[in-house]
Amino acid sequence: MIVNIQSESDDRSTDDVITWIKHLFTHIELNCIFGEINVNDINIGLSNKGITYKLGKYEVNEKSTFWYRRGIVDFNRNKICSDLKIEKNYN
Q1: Which residue of 43, 56, 65, 71 has the lowest C-beta tally within 10 Å?
Q2: Contact 75, 11 (CB under 8 A)
Q3: Tens place of pLDDT for every residue, the chain, 91 residues?
Q4: pTM beyond 0.85, yes or no
Q5: Cα(44)–Cα(59) distance, integer angstroms
Q6: How many whole angstroms separate alpha carbon 33 and alpha carbon 84?
Q7: Residue 10: what are its φ and ψ, rounded to 5°?
Q8: Residue 29 and residue 2: Cα distance in Å, rounded?
């Protein structure tokens, strides 16, 4: 399992959470994201295998998750709305 955690670099409570997760769940890969995330695309995939959600380059599925604690997520609304499309894939 991959856990992507977004927070601010000076947030000590996130540091405590990361230490706790590493201690209790040694099989989890942690990616810490400090600072602003620029989102130019959002993808949601529906299939008979499950649901995937992708916020920029961070994907949420059965193997990966995204945990927003603190920080800035900058949505490029003009880009996202101009590229909007819906796709279904049922194999």
Answers
A1: 43
A2: no
A3: 889 898 888 888 988 988 998 899 888 898 888 878 877 777 777 777 777 878 878 888 888 888 888 887 777 777 666 666 666 666 5
A4: no
A5: 10
A6: 26
A7: -100, 15
A8: 5
